[in-house]
Amino acid sequence: MAKPSVRSAAIADVSAITPIYQQAVLEGLASWEYDPPDDAEMRRRFEAIVTAGYPYLVAELGGRIIGYAYASAYRARPGYRFTVENSVYVATDTHRTGAGRALLSELIEQSAARGFRQMIAVIGDSANQPSIALHRSLGFTFCGVIHSIGWKHGRWLDSVYMQRALGAGDTRPPTAAK
Question: Is 139 within 8 Å of 86 (Cβ atoms)?
Answer without folding.
Answer: no
